[in-house]
Amino acid sequence: EKGGYEHFMIKEIYEQPKAIRETMTGRLAKDDSRVVFDELKWTKEDVANIKKIVITACGTAFHAGIVGKYYLEQLARIPVEVDIASEFRYRSPLTDEQTLAIVISQSGETSDTLAALKEAKRLGARTLAITNVVGSSIAREADQVIYTWAGPEIAVASTKAYTTQLISVLMLALYLADLKGTLPPERIQELIKGLRALPGQAHELLEDVEPVKTFAQQYGFNEDVFFIGRSLDYAVALEGSLKLKEISYIHAEAYAAGELKHGTLALIIEGVPVIALATQHDVYEKMLSNIKEVKARDAVVIGIAMKGDEEIKKYVDHTIFIPATDKYLAPILAVIPLQLLAYYAAVTRGADVDKPRNLAKSVTVE
Ligand code: F6R
User: In this structure, what DSSP letter does residue 35 have?
Assistant: First the structure.
């Protein structure tokens, strides 16, 4: 059932090109002009009534929500709050009929997320679930559902669910942008073309995993690893850090790169691996300054950058390149080497990859 792979996690990492293709199937207009969501069928009036979006989720799905905030705010120009489900439900959220509450959950059974969904409904919000499991509790409770169609995810560490959640929220943002007229048609088309290229690019990335494997073996016995990035790269850093912690038990921290000098820089000492994501062009120069700050403390820096970026090599010790893509699509590719890093680090340390200690696939207790 693992199809020749040693663990479910690595099988699921490799299933990503197919999973992300399935998520998009039937949802992109043939002429690339817009996203089609037959399951939503919203009108311009429906969308004009959405004054605010709140996204709630747990763990990896919460990290997908953080990326979703960038997508929905920047492309559809709707204010978005992202909240951890177990926090949302106890903070008397300012949610009403003009709020769209989005919950994201692979399993559709996470009890905190389900409770947050019920709370949002009680407050009168319109609700939308993004989930992978047809007929799950969350799918049944929400007013509307977008299925991610990633196929069953067995490994406790979420991989293909995350990438398909990102695709789903991006498509939702483009769908809303079209109805609200917040993006020029050419820009929508450009992003849809970029989406279509992703399965092939993810496949390309998975063809050459040797460098990542080598870094994992080389640094797999360090006790602390830092992940830094700005903007969307920061959101991906959070997910990379969680992945590494949960399966390899290496202590990892993700930091918005500009925040390092407000305290955390004290922890960067000689030899500490720092994974620096630098895929976002609008903050690229700022990111290079942050890389220089950690290099000055003798950290070992592994840069994650887009193919064609020769500049980065001057500043880092090693580089992992992802295929060149739009800044909004970069997270979907950039997370893949981080998933692989976590996987190979866990294998190097002899950890039980698919069933990490103390964790359950679906958390149905509070
Ligand atoms: C991390 C992981 C967890 C889940 C979280 C939410 O790899 O798997 O953090 O993402 O427990 O689960 P779902 O998405 O099923 O609600």
Answer: B
Closest ligand 1 atom, residue 107 Cα = 15
To the nearest 10 degrees (0 to 180), the angle between helices 330-348 and 232-248 is 20
Dist CA 28 CA 150 (whole Å)? 17
- The helix/strand/coil state of 212 is helix
- Write the pLDDT tens digit of every residue in 133-175: 999 999 999 999 999 999 999 999 999 999 999 999 999 999 9
For the beta sheet containing 126-131, the strands, ordered from the edge strand earlier in sequence to the opposite edge, are: 80-84, 52-57, 99-105, 126-131, 144-147
Alpha helices of the chain — where are they, by DSSP H? 8-14, 16-24, 44-48, 59-76, 85-88, 111-122, 137-141, 160-180, 185-207, 210-219, 232-248, 284-295, 330-348
Q: How far apart are CA 85 and CA 112, in angstroms?
A: 5
Q: Residues near ligand 1 with C-beta < 6 Å? A: 58-61, 105-107, 110, 113, 156-158, 242, 246, 362-363
Confidence of residue 362 (pLDDT cuts 50, 70, 90): confident
What is the pairing mode between strands 273-278 and 224-229? parallel
Q: What is the DSSP string of 55-92?
A: EEE-HHHHHHHHHHHHHHHHHH---EEEEEHHHHTTS-
Respond yes or no: is residue 361 known to be catalytic: yes
61 C-alpha to ligand 1 centroid (Å): 6
Is 294:269 a contact under the CB 8 Å cutoff? no
Residues in the chain: 366
Per-residue pLDDT for 366 more than 90? no
